[in-house]
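Q: STAS domain-containing protein, please. Structure only.
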Amino acid sequence: MDSQNQYCVSRPIYSTRAFEHVNEKQVRETKTIKERLRNSVKCSPKLIPQIIKKFFPILNWLPIYQLKQWLPGDIVAGVTTGMVCALQGLAYSLLVGVPPVYGLYAAFFPILTYFILGTSRHLSVGPFPVTCLMQGAVVLSLAPDELFLYHGNTTGVNGTATLVVNTTARDATRISIATSMTVLIGLFQFGMGVVQVGFLVRYLSDPLVGGFTTAAALQVVVSQLKLIFNVPTNNYNGILSLFYTIGDIFKNIKQTNMVDLIAAVLTIIVVMLVKEFNTKFQKKLPVPIPIEVIVTIIDSGVSYAMDLSTNYGAGIVRTIPRGFIPPRSPDVSLFSSFGGPSFSTGVVSYAIAISVAKVYAAKHELIVDGNQELIAFGISNIFCGCFSGFVATTALSRTAIQESTGGKTQVAGIISALMVLIVIVAVGPLLQPLQKSVLGAIIVANLKGMFMQVHDVPILWRKNKTDCCIWVLTCLACIFLGLDVGLLTGVIFELGTVVIRTQFPTCSTLGNVPSTEIYKNMKDYKNIIECPGVKVFKCAAPIYFANIEYLRDQIKHTVGFNAVRVFKKRNKALKKIHQLIKKGKLKVTENGLVPVAPLGVDNEAFERERDPEQVEGGAQQEVNGGARPAAEVEVQVDWSSTLPVSVRIPKVNIHSLVMDFTAVSFLDVMAAKSLKLIIKEFMRIGVNVYLAGCDDEIIMKMESMGFFDEVVNRGMLFISVHDAILYIKMETDSENSDDSMAEKISQMQDDKAPPPFTEDEDLIETYDNQHLAIHGLSS
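A: Structure for STAS domain-containing protein:
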C-alpha cells in the first residue's frame, strides 16, 4: 500500500470518564415542556411575515412569478391537464357510485384552495382511482341498491310486480354519504397537519404502497367490469368482495351488451397504444396527444348519432346538468359510520400526494412542507365536500402531463380548473350520450402504470427479501380482505418486520486488523486476529425489553460458556473442597492444597488464605475430646487446573469481555437492568466487562436509570473498542511483569510529562498517561 495513503494517530487511551474530564464536558441544557410550548407559540413582529408565508405558500412564489418565461408553459400545461382532469373526474365518479357531474366538482373545487395553500408547484390536484374506490366501497356498503327497491308498474313472468331501484333517492343518499365522508377526511388531514404529525405517512413504505396500489388497481378493474360488460352485480364490501363481484359478472355474462363491450375494448386498446406513443416520443411532441378527450368526443358523437341507448340498450351517462349545486353542510350523524375508513383514506390520499410532490420537488430543487400539505389537502377536501365533491389527492399521470407540458407553478392548476369550469357550465350536456363503458375503459387504461409495479417484486427479492414480503403480503391482503383491512394488515406486518429485526439483531464477534485500530467481524475476514483472553462482542441494534434475552444468549454463544452455570459449578466445587478440608482429607499449605488421604489427584494450584492451625484469638482450643473445630477458610482456586473434586466446571478461557455499543441507539429500563445483571454475572467469575463506543445520550440514559453503582461503574466505559483493548493489554502486562501500575505510570510521566489531574481517580490517571497508537496491539 502506498505510504501516502496511511495515517498515524497518537493520543491518550481514553475511558469515557477520562475523555469527559480532559475535554471538559458540559452539562446539557434541558427545557421543560412548559418552556418548549412557550417558545413554540412565541411571536415577534419579525416572525409574522414568515408565519403568514408558511401558511400561505402562494406568497413565496407569486411575487417572483416570471410572466414572460413561465406563463406560456403554464397555459399549455393547464389546458392539456384540464381536459384530462375533467374526463377523469367523470370516469372516477363511477368508482364512488355517484352521478358523473359530481366528478367534475371533485376536479374543480380542490384546485382553488390548493392554489393558495399548497407547497408543491407541479401537483395536479383532483380525484384518484384508489382513493375513489376506497370511498366508493363505503358509499356502496351504506347505500346499496337493495335499500331503494320498490314495486314497479310492470309484472314479471310469475305475475308479481317487478322491483325497480329508486335512483333519485339512492343517488341523493350516496351523494350525502360521499360528501360527508369527504369533509371528515379533510378534518382528519387538517387536524394531522395542525398537530404536525405528517411523519406518520413515513410508516407507509414504498413496498407497502406499491403492493397496496397494485391490489387497488385490480379492485378498480373488477369494479369497472360490470360497466364494460353492462351486466348487473350486487354491491360487496369486505373480505373476498372482489371474488363475489367476479362471480356475479360470470353468472350474468350472458346479459353482456356487445355494443358496450366492443366500445370499451376498442377504447382500452387505442388509449394504451397512444399513451405508449406519447411516452416514446415525449421529447419530440410539443404536447402529449389528449387521447382520452379524442375518444370521449368520438364516442359521444357516435352514441348520439346512432342513439345507442335506445337502439342497442347501451349504458350512457344520460344527465350532466349545467352549473353548480349550492353548498351544504355535511351530515354529522353519519361520521360514526365511516370514521375508520375516512382516516385510512385520508392517510392514503396524503401519502400518494406527498410522494408525487417530493419527486418533482427534488427534480426542480424545490421544497415541499409535509405538514403544510396536510393542511392544504385537509382544507381542500372540506371545501370540496361542502360543494358536493368527493375526496381529492393527485395522480402521477396528470402531474406528469402538467410538468412535462411546461407547467412551472400552480397557475397551470388554475387554468386546468378553468377548463373543468367550462365543461361544468357549457360543455357538460354535450357529453350526456357518452357510454359508461368508455369511461370505465378510460379508467382501466390509465391503470397500466400501477400494474407495471409487479415488475418490482423480483427486483425487491434480489435486493431485500423482507421488503419483497411486505409488498406481496400487502397486495394479497388487500385483494382478499379489502383495501382498508388489507392496508392495516400490511402496516402491522411492516411494523412487525421492524420489531423482529430489532428483536433478533445481528450480533458478531470482532477481531483486530493487525497494526490498526479497526475491528471487524471474525467471520468476514481472514487476516484479523483476536486479542488473547479477550472477546469483543458487538450488537448492531437498540437494546430493549424484547431483545435483551436474545442478546444474553448471543453473549453466551460468543464467550462459549454460561456465566451463571460457571458460578454455580464453582460454588459447588468450593463446598466440596471445604468439606474435604473439614474432614482432614485436604490440607492448606504454602504450596496449595495437599491431600492427606490418597485422592488420586495432586493439585498444587491452590493458595492458602490463612493457616488452618490458627483460630480466631490466636490460641489453639481443645473441644469435644481434643478435636479442633474446622475453621472456614477462603480458598483461591486456579479454575483452569485440574481440581481435587469430581465437579465438571465449564472452562473460562477469557479474562475480559468488551461490548461494542457503537450501533446501540436506545436502551430502556428493563434492558438496562438486565444488562447490569449480565455484567455482574461475569464479574463475579473473574471476567472484567467493558462497554465501548457508548453514545453520550446512552450514557445519560444509563445515569438516569441508576445503571451505575459501586460494582458497575463509569470506569468500564471507553471511547472506542481499541481504547478498551489497549487498556486491558496494559493491565494484563502489568500483572504478568510484577511491576505495579503506578511504576508504569511514573515511567511514562517521565517520558511524556502530561499535566496532572486534580481528581482522585486512578483510572483517569492511567488512561491519560498511556497513549494509544495505531500499532498498539502488535507492539
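A: Brief note, in case it's useful. The first helix runs from residue 16 to 22.
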